[in-house]
Design brief:
seven-stranded parallel sheet; about 475 residues; Rossmann fold; 16 helices; binds adenosine monophosphate; alpha/beta
């Protein structure tokens, strides 16, 4: 689930920025010719040493917006931690660390270490003993190292709070405060957040110095996202989602509800109609969240149902449709929701279900988008196939992953060489520490499962189950 900004960025060229020639050369090598909107808005300020509150989501190019300034503040010859990036999740921390390493390639030997919960603390301590310039980590684990004195932040000059809203949602407020307490007062602080609820404003007020605010109103190319509104009575709303799916038959749909209860109700209604739907909610354990996302991203689940909070940070490359099951009270959130589809020049659908009570909200959305919404009647939504909508793939879970040294090639090899399937019948293979998830064409799922359980992967018998 990696992202690149939709289309090539069209902002100003990087060479207008006060960056060293070798940094500019490296950016060119990375294919960064022009700035994305968030980079154009934040880099001049951040490189001038300003504290920033910036609104940006994954895929906007936000990592370079703080990565380049933190590297500019850094003295590579000084072997001490000079920058800290706090992130809500391990996934994001790994992604951010990787991007900072790429941006740092022009300097010799800049060491970037990730410190996240869930990984062995001993290994982290050993890496820290060897020294590092940049730490990227989750608040709990970073604090743990500070308490053990295996990490010191006395030489720090840049602090980044990435996805600040999500860190607060996940209950990291106290840990963040404690970590910031270990940072020198004299520093540059950059706060990035997809949304700006009151608690993020409070956080900024407490820890940033005369911050400049960088806020971008998103606008999407009307050509790539086709929006349709349907008027519904309250008792038609959930049923209408099934009508949309069986009419337009999108392979992957993200459905947004305003409340968790609505998400649960919708999943129940869709399943009762024989559709494959999963709920992504904020209370899921990281492992369960990973599992839901794997199934959705590998196309073995048709609909992912989520609230805005739960879908934060989520970035899925191929999304044929977004459905606004409820209209968001905030027009910016609506625009943010529909921006998930129609990526990279591919056409996407955005459907919105609105009751009479929600017409005021639709009016504000029209105003923000600068165009009138296009209305269609529910009666147009007739099934376009006799078959209910099924996802093209199914997910098989093999109990055993990185810890067992299973690699994608081993699984693909077992299925193609030993069991006679063709490579085109096998989809994405995701491997985490303890499990391997393999997507296979729905029609061969039973057979593939039986053969995996009867045969071997990498010379060992394995246990597999269908999700
Ligand atoms: P991010 O939002 O930081 O996760 O970035 C999304 C992706 O866009 C990453 O793969 C970056 O390497 C890439 N990217 C960021 N900025 C630019 C740029 N100015 N030009 C081209 N690619 C970029």
């Amino acid at each position: 689930m990696t992202a690149s900004p939709a289309g090539a960025p069209t902002g100003p060229a990087f060479d207008i920025l006060p960056l060293a020639p070798e940094v500019l050369a490296n950016l060119r090598q990375l294919g960064y010719e022009r700035m994305t909107p968030i980079q154009a808005a934040s880099l001049p300020l951040a490189l001038a040493g300003q504290d920033l509150i910036a609104q940006a989501k994954t895929g906007s190019g936000k990592t370079a917006s703080f990565g380049l300034p933190l590297l500019a503040n850094l003295n590579a010859r000084r072997f001490a931690v000079q920058a800290l990036v706090l992130c809500p999740t391990r996934e994001l921390a790994e992604q951010v660390a990787q991007e900072i390493r790429r941006l740092a390639r022009s300097e010799e030997n800049i060491k970037v270490i990730t410190l996240c919960g869930g990984a062995a603390i001993r290994t982290q301590i050993t890496s820290l003993e060897h020294g590092a310039h940049v730490i990227v980590g989750t608040p709990g684990r970073v604090l743990d190292h500070l308490s053990r004195q295996t990490l010191a932040l006395d030489a720090l000059n840049t602090l980044v709070l990435d996805e600040a809203d999500r860190m607060l949602d996940m209950g990291f407020a106290d840990d963040m405060a404690a970590v910031i307490g270990h940072c020198p007062k004299q520093r540059q602080t950059l706060l990035f957040s997809a949304t700006f609820p009151d608690d993020v404003a409070k956080l900024a007020g407490r820890y940033l110095r005369e911050p400049k605010q960088v806020k971008l109103t998103e606008q999407h190319a009307a050509a790539t996202i086709r929006q349709r509104f349907y008027e519904v009575a309250e008792d038609q709303r959930l049923h209408a989602v099934g009508l949309l799916l069986n009419h337009y038959r999108p392979v992957s749909t993200l459905a947004f509800c305003n409340t968790k209860q609505q998400c649960r109700d919708l999943v129940a209604v869709l399943r009762a109609q024989g559709l494959s739907a999963l709920e992504l909610h904020g209370d899921l354990e990281q492992r369960d969240r990973d599992q839901v996302l794997v199934q959705f991203a590998n196309r073995s689940c048709s609909v992912l149902v989520a609230t805005d909070v739960a879908a934060r940070g989520l970035d899925i490359a191929q999304l044929e449709a977004v459905i606004n099951v409820d209209i968001s009270p905030e027009p910016e959130v609506h625009v943010h929701r529909i921006g998930r589809t129609g990526r990279a020049g591919e056409a996407g659908w955005a459907f919105s279900l609105a009751s009479l009570d929600e017409m005021g909200r639709v009016g504000r959305i029209d105003e923000l988008q600068g165009r009138e919404s296009e209305w269609h009647a529910l009666s147009e939504l007739v099934p376009t196939s006799a078959e209910p909508l099924h996802p093209p793939m199914a997910t098989l879970q093999i109990l055993g992953g990185r810890k067992e040294k299973i690699r994608a090639g081993d699984v693909l090899g077992a299925l193609t060489k030993d069991h006679g399937f063709t490579a085109t019948q096998i989809g994405k293979i995701d491997i985490n520490d303890f499990s391997t998830y393999v997507a296979v064409e729905r029609g061969i799922a039973k057979d593939a499962l039986r053969k995996l359980n009867a045969g071997k992967v990498k010379g060992k018998t394995v246990k597999a189950r269908a999700l």
